[in-house]
Amino acid sequence: MGVAASQSTMDDLFAEEGLDREVHAYCPSCNNELKPGAVLCTNCGFNISTGEVLDGHKVVGVDIDKGTMALNKAERDIAAAKKAQADLIGKAGMPPWMLALVLFILGSAVSIAVLAVNASRREEAIAFNPMQMFMNLGGAAFLLVSIGALLSLVALAFRTDRTQGLLSLTIIYLFVFPFRYGKGSWKILAVALVCGGIAGAFFAGASSM
């Protein structure tokens, strides 16, 4: 009888401390007891299946102090500002190759104008056609852009697959590659074709002068 009474007393003590309950699982983040079949911890928001913490509403002074909350908000604001600035820079203005082309043509026009003025001041006659030189330089500039676009398309094909890259070296396959790859390859091919056509028009105009 004494042993039974002692065992009953111990059971009562365990029951008071909650040690007689069957525990199914604990949260690996905060060690809080989880209900059977639970995936999300209601105490800290830890998701057992994904390993992520659900950042829910936090009460200042209870779940988080004011300083930490202010730092977290400042960090989020800085990240959002950087992303907005990057998007603005990426969408604004002209592409670098177009800017370089415009600057080259403007520089060529100024140089040819200076040469034309100097030639007009010479006493002896010289064979100098400023417009023909401008057409040749403009054609060369557009031709370089066209070649650069084709080379970038070849590089894109190699990055996609080695076989695609080797096939693109045949040049003819460059017109097939955008059909297979899609995405931004159409723009590159369009730049190459348009600039190549403009270069041909410049050279044709220069040869007819």
Task: Offer a quick outline of the entry.
The chain is mainly α and 209 residues long.
Structure, explained:
- This protein has 7 helices and 2 strands; from the N terminus they run αββαααααα.
- The protein is mainly α and 209 residues long.
- It has 3 domains: 1-56, no CATH class; 58-92; 96-207, no CATH class.
- The protein has a two-stranded antiparallel ribbon with strand order 1-2.
- A hairpin with a 6-residue loop joins strand 1 (25-26) and strand 2 (33-34).
- The longest helix has 31 residues, at 130-160.
- Mean pLDDT is 73; it is low at 1-5.
- Keywords: Membrane, Transmembrane, Transmembrane helix.
- This is Putative membrane protein.
- The chain crosses the membrane at residues 97-117, 137-158, 165-182, 188-206.
Key attributes of the depicted protein:
mainly alpha; 3 domains; two-stranded antiparallel ribbon; transmembrane; 2 strands; 209 residues; membrane; elongated; transmembrane helix
